[in-house]
Amino acid sequence: MTHKWWMHLYGVFFGIYIPREFQYLKGKVVLHLADTPSTFYGAVSRLVHTLDPMYVIHTGDLADDVKLALNPGDLERYRGKLLELRRAISPGKNRKLVIVTGNHDDENSVREIFPDAIVFPRKGRVEIEGEEYNLSHDRNGLEGSPARFNLFGHEPSGDETDDSHYYLNGVNTIHVISAVSGEVYRLPYPGYVNDGRLLRRKRGL
Question: How far is CA 141 from the centre of its chain?
Answer without folding.
Answer: 16
